[in-house]
Design a protein that fits this description.
This protein has 91 residues and is mainly alpha-helical. 76% of the residues lie in helices and 7% in strands. The longest helix is centred in the first third of the chain and has 27 residues, at 2-28. The N and C termini lie close together (11 Å).
Length: 91
């Protein structure tokens, strides 16, 4: 069971890093033809889109802030904690 827990833990950790990279990419305004950005967007959009749809973006003047990556990262952090409790500290 520990091997499954390790795989799940590191998969969630990698996904957190990928979402963080996507957030940084969004600040840099990458080219839509960039294959790395398109790959990252394709694998993170299924997690971010429902959150973005529920919360929308926060606007202040002419600036908009999308907090969906932050919310998803926090949720994934809690998922990591649950994985640790179930696979490494359980009976």
């Amino acid at each position: 069971m520990t091997l499954i827990g390790l795989i799940l833990y590191y998969a969630v950790r990698a996904y957190i890093i990928i979402i963080f990279v996507r957030a940084i990419f969004s600040w840099l305004n990458p080219s839509p033809l960039n294959p790395v950005y398109n790959f990252i967007k394709a694998i993170t959009e299924p997690a971010l889109k429902p959150v973005r749809k529920k919360l929308g973006t926060f606007r202040s003047g002419n600036m908009a802030v999308d907090i969906s990556p932050l919310i998803v990262i926090i949720a994934l952090y809690f998922l990591q904690r649950i994985i640790i409790l179930v696979f490494f500290k359980g009976p």
